[in-house]
Amino acid sequence: MNHPRPPLRSRPQSELKSFPHLVPPRWRKPSPLIFVGLIVGAAFFFHGLWISELTPLRIWQGFSRLWNFLDKAIPPDPSRLGSVIQATLETFEMALVGTVFGAVLSLPLAIFAAKNTTPHRFIFTLTRSFVTLLRVIPDLIWGLIFIIVVGLGPAAGIMALTADTMGFCGKFFAERIEEIEPGPVEALRAIGASEPSIIVGAIFPATLPSFVASTLFALESSVRSAVVLGLVGAGGIGVELSTSMQLLRYDEAFMVIIVIFIVVLVVEQVSSFIRRTIIGGKNL
Amino acid sequence: MLSLAVDHLSKIYANGTVALKDVSFSAQPGEAIVLLGSNGSGKSTLLRCLVGLETPSSGTIYMGDAAIATATPHQLRTLRRQVGIVFQRFNLVSSLSAFHNVLQGSLGRSKGPQYWFPATAPQYERDRVMQCLARVNLAHVAQQRVDTLSGGQQQRVAIARMLMQDPSLLLVDEPVASLDPKSGREAMDLLWDIVRERQLTVICTLHQLELAKDYADRIIGLREGEIQIDAPTHQITDHELSWLYESSQTTASIETPV
């Protein structure tokens, strides 16, 4: 307060005069690679817009069809509510079983797929590729594959969700393991502990909160996937929804949609509450 | 008591840094050696080589009658069991209780997963954990997570874990560097009481010359990866010790006019 700011010296000004290139240009030419990338991206975008024929007219006509749907759908028909709720529970249970299987199987997978715990570079590459494979194949395709393997029904859905969860959790668990502090691991190694006891004694305690949070996230995603898996016959509510839709019984379909909405919302709220508690609070 | 001999040990890192140059010394059973040297003098590298966390570029380390470099993974584990380490940053598993951390000291000698969790550990090991915690006056925090404890308390939990391991040779890496002077003294007193009562051979790195003179039987001074001083504590002058910590430029400018 007692020392007023000194007036700006003229030195920067004179420096600018003698070095005009210090001023950044308004425009910079993009590199050829970025330029080509932008052209290709734009080409895909406009071609996609063109083939979809997404014109304002069609959107306007769509509104009247939506009105037609809502007109038939409201009020929703609760006559089959009992079986709808039962099928929705089956969907949730499919998601739960598939996610738990997937998360448990991800534990050994992640140990092999993390740089600092893998027994060998070759095993690291192999498991990483396997996890990537699980992830790049969409859950719906896993569903179709497992329907061929075990037939229609929730078993195929559970297996598809297990594969899906392993693709997600395997990657996140392994990355979390790679981030741990090396100190406690070194301490146990110096004590002469075996590799399995180092993993259980030093690595899992540090990574468990993050593992649980990732698993809950996978559960939320599995519940949504399980609904869609039902559409191809892999068990759960999806088959009810597609039947009602195909029979044009929109009031029944709307009831199904409402029940799905409630279940997904409850699962997401409960799961994010638990995740916040785990990450926020120190207690496991 | 385990004898230790280091023979012409050198360590050159992949990036070309020479951390240790032709280091040789041997420790008598029950001897307390303090390693002195500034940052980057090679103290920590030497300790890490001693326990096999780093592989030396050349030279050999003998513990008892086994050479570390040629030890099989199984032999290395057997050797590590007999070598306790107290780390500068404690290296406790922060999300576990003090009790669980001390129990982990038994992981070297115990086989089988029942030692992995306090709930399944045998009763006599659980009793020993409490004895070790009582020895460092921390029995009252056994159930607390170690990240809720103070730095001095965490260092004492680490000492209790070392007690649980029951080593014959003890390596200590700057045990007081993360502590305030008072808790540092307390940690050193506690550590040395234990060392003397169990007649452990101990190799301890330190930064503080005062502490080194108070606790060491023998001082080894490292500078730029080489042993410059190796003598019983009472034979070393303060001038020699402070020379270890002067940068090479400073020394050069002092020596040139003479």
Describe this structure as you would to a colleague.
The complex is a heterodimer of chains A (284) and B (258). Chain A has 284 residues and is mainly alpha-helical. Helices cover 77% and strands 0% of the residues of chain A. Chain A has helices at 11-18, 32-52, 56-73, 81-113, 121-136, 139-150, 154-178, 182-191, 195-231, 238-246, 250-280. The relative contact order of chain A is 0.12. The mean pLDDT of chain A is 85. By secondary structure, chain B is of the alpha/beta class. In chain B, 36% of the residues lie in helices and 23% in strands. Chain B has nine helices and ten strands. In chain B, the strands form two sheets. Chain B has a six-stranded mixed sheet with strand order 6-7-8-3-9-10, sandwiched between helices. The longest helix of chain B is centred in the last third of the chain and has 18 residues, at 181-198. The termini of chain B are far apart. The relative contact order of chain B is 0.18. The model of chain B is unreliable at 250-258 (pLDDT under 50).
